[in-house]
Design brief:
Butyryl-CoA Dehydrogenase, subunit A, domain 2, Butyryl-CoA Dehydrogenase, subunit A, domain 3, alpha+beta, four-stranded antiparallel β-sheet, about 10% strand, Butyryl-Coa Dehydrogenase, subunit A, domain 1
């Protein structure tokens, strides 16, 4: 299933789509062992690197391809139909790239680093969670200390997804030891001699097992130029919030789409066996199709909304935009779960069993992560506050 841009054209160019198609073949073969063993999908990311798909969103002037948010989302959807963990890692990587492209373009250190990403096809992770802040990424306990053009940082990160395998980590911290918890910065920390990761917890979960989201004590030193000039509050509001919810939703849509495809194949098989009867799951399949189409429509609309907002910084930072993007995360996470559960009801025991052409157990376990990746309750609480200060936009056009 492809997303489309505002003109109705397919988004990912033929070249990028063909490159991702080759990666998808590898991911599909590896998905079951990645899930069963809870291991990093090394072969998938070797393929993404070989196909030069890790630096695809870096601007062309810095050696990348400068592809759009919609094109990246379309590639994520394709990968998610093969392996949810691989797609989620790719999505999280692209979220970090989005922050660099949006907020590092005017900083020479960050420009040089983006050239490295495009040239070396580096994999980026993030460290926004921290022990003691209760999952609120807009607060930090740790702080960067800057002296003589160098910084140092120690962060007790409860989760750094695929941290052991990342070529760089974008970490948040207070601007200084005496700064308030909400006065944060973000710093790029490459994997070199100045970065140490001490594993504190191991990722052993129901789903998304291949993301290897262990907890670490992160210590690092480096050039003060690695710190983003803009405060993290602006980075979060103007790029990270939207790119996170869009790319996560693309992942969940891809997982749901593959579960739906398996259910559809099951119903078609039943119809061939009894051509004069409507298969029992046919009506439920129609209901699932409607939900999948609604999910796709919401995702496409959110991408277009983000594209428009990027041209107006006031709109990008507005309360109404934040509420709309929050709604995407909540709706996509809930609909994806509903669709996969319906696929299991349609396929019955063959969907419930592992190792059949109709198995959706991995899909179900992966998609249950959606409502707890930044808890929907937390997002509803944030959005309810936003709605006290804004009106719902009922316009159907611009």
């Amino acid at each position: 299933m492809n997303l489309v841009d505002s003109t109705g054209a397919k988004l990912a160019g033929d070249d990028a789509s063909a490159r991702m198609a080759r990666v998808v073949e590898i991911a599909a073969k590896a998905a079951e062992t990645v899930d069963r063993e809870g291991r990093f999908p090394r072969e998938v990311f070797d393929a993404l690197k070989s196909e030069r798909l890790l630096g695809i969103a870096v601007p062309a002037e810095l050696g990348g391809e400068g592809v759009s948010t919609a094109a990246i989302a379309d590639l994520i959807v394709k990968l998610a139909q093969a392996c949810g963990s691989s797609a989620m890692i790719y999505a999280m990587h692209q979220i970090q790239i989005s922050s660099l492209v949006s907020h590092g373009i005017g900083n020479e250190w960050h420009r040089a680093f983006m050239r490295r990403i495009a040239s070396e096809q580096l994999l980026l992770a993030s460290a926004t969670s921290e022990a003691g802040i209760g999952g609120n990424l807009r607060n930090s306990i740790c702080a960067v200390e800057v002296a003589d053009g160098r910084f140092s940082l120690t962060k007790d990160a409860t989760v750094i997804s695929y941290g052991s395998f990342a070529d760089a980590i974008l970490a948040t911290a207070r601007r200084a030891p005496d700064a308030p918890s909400t006065d944060q910065v973000m710093v790029v920390i490459p994997a070199d001699g100045s970065r140490v990761l001490e594993r504190k917890t191991v990722w052993d979960t129901l789903g998304m097992r291949g993301t290897c989201s262990d907890g670490f004590l992160l210590t690092a030193t480096g050039d003060a130029g690695q710190i983003f000039p803009k405060p993290f509050s602006e980075i979060a509001a103007q790029s990270m919030l939207a790119s996170s919810h869009i790319y996560w939703a693309a992942t969940w849509f891809g997982i749901a789409a593959d579960a739906f495809a398996r259910a559809q194949s099951f119903v078609k098989q039943a119809a061939r066996k009894q051509p004069n009867m409507v298969p029992p799951g046919a009506l439920r399949l129609s209901e699932a199709a409607a939900k999948l189409q609604a999910m796709k429509g919401h995702l496409v609309a959110a991408i277009r909304r983000f594209d428009a907002a990027e041209r107006d910084e006031d709109d990008l930072s507005s309360i109404s935009f934040a509420a709309e993007i929050n709604a995407l995360k909540v709706a996509a996470s809930e609909k994806a779960d509903e669709i996969v559960r319906m696929a299991m009801l349609i396929t019955g025991i063959l969907g419930y069993k592992n190792g059949t052409p109709f198995s959706v157990g991995r899909h179900l376990r992966d998609v249950t992560s959606a409502v707890v990746m930044i808890s929907n309750d937390r997002i509803h609480a944030n959005t309810s506050t936003l709605l006290l200060m804004s009106r719902f936009d009922t316009r159907l056009g611009g």
